[in-house]
Amino acid sequence: MADLLEVVEVRKSYGGVQALKSVSFSLAAGEVVALMGPNGAGKTTLVNVICGHTRPDGGVVRLDGRSLAGMGPARVARLGIARTFQNLCLFDHLTAVENVAVAVGLGAYRVSDAILRRWAFRAGEADILGRAEKVLDAVGFPPEARDLTPPMLPYGLRKRLELARALARNPKVLVLDEPVAGMNREEWPAIAGLIRAVAASGVGVLVIEHHWPFVQQVGQRGVFMAHGSVIAQGCWSEILSPREVVGRGLGRADGVGAPVL
Ligand SMILES: Nc1ncnc2c1ncn2[C@@H]1O[C@H](COP(=O)(O)OP(=O)(O)OP(=O)(O)O)[C@@H](O)[C@H]1O
Ligand SMILES: [Mg+2]
């Protein structure tokens, strides 16, 4: 059977800069893969190609064996790829629960899902808000903060809110761009547990994260990029150890990849 997500020989240049030089990897349903690499390695460009924000110069991305060529972000999202952004992307004038409710509504109208569609036609606003509350429960978002707008929330809660919004769309593939950036280390186990639970439900999760110790908690496999190419990929034991990463000048000795991993 084909992998859930396949990236095959994807290329992208910006003027003279080859941001992606023939990048290939795959992600199976229920798997967590960590995408790592120094600043400028091409991670965000790759995610933008996967999610339909950036058109590649060559190569193909497939979801469930279907090519996403030529599709924009809205269509890719409807087909089942949800993402969070390196720089948060929330509606600042809506409350937390409303932010998630918007995504629930979008997910409910996915054309390929007849059952959800019937449900959505019957569902009133209260049902959508109720489901938004459930998703917020699932990501551990405190009830007392749900009527606040994003600018009123601490950074860690805004990250959880973005995650809730992505999950509200019932994605097949979830792409997380730096999910614990700006969070305390004490919050990592909860987020790692949440990501593992999402994967256990059958979702394929691609995590871009600078913190090497964190990605080892959540993912079985890593894809390591540098200068627009995949330089190593595989299970943790098969790819670069943190020591090699530091030795090659690609990371820091304290295990924190930033500004590199
Ligand atoms: N829109 C763009 N226009 C021109 N160059 C770009 C554009 N987007 C990315 N690049 C270049 O492509 C290369 C890869 O950038 P990208 O943002 O994908 O790296 P990254 O791995 O996400 O880095 P970081 O860890 O800093 O987020 C860099 O050299 C960057 O300057
Ligand atoms: Mg980036």
Largest sheet: 6 strands, mixed
Q: Give the CATH superfamily of the largest domain.
A: P-loop containing nucleotide triphosphate hydrolases
Query: What is the highest CATH level, the class of the largest domain?
Result: Alpha Beta
Low-confidence regions: 109-115, 256-261
Question: What is the strand content?
Answer: 15-25%
Name the structural class. alpha/beta
Can you count the beta strands? Answer: 10
Please give the alpha-carbon distance between the first and last residues. 32 Å
Strand order of the largest sheet: 6-7-8-3-9-10
Q: Which CATH architecture of the largest domain would you pick?
A: 3-Layer(aba) Sandwich
CATH topology of the largest domain: Rossmann fold
Residue share in helix:
25-40%
Report the average pLDDT across residues.
83
For the CA atoms, what is the radius of gyration? 18 Å
**Element pattern in H and E:** EEEHEEHEHHHHEHEHEEH
General shape: globular
- The DSSP helix count reads 9
Number of domains: 2
**Ligands, deduplicated:** adenosine-5'-triphosphate, magnesium ion
Topology:
Elements: E1 5-14, E2 17-27, E3 32-36, H1 43-50, E4 58-63, E5 66-67, H2 73-79, E6 81-83, H3 96-108, H4 114-122, H5 125-138, H6 155-167, E7 173-177, H7 188-200, E8 204-208, H8 212-218, E9 221-226, E10 229-235, H9 242-247
Helix pairs in contact: 3-5, 3-6, 5-6, 7-8
The structure holds adenosine-5'-triphosphate and magnesium ion.
Adenosine-5'-triphosphate binds at residues 14, 17, 19, 37, 39-45, 86.
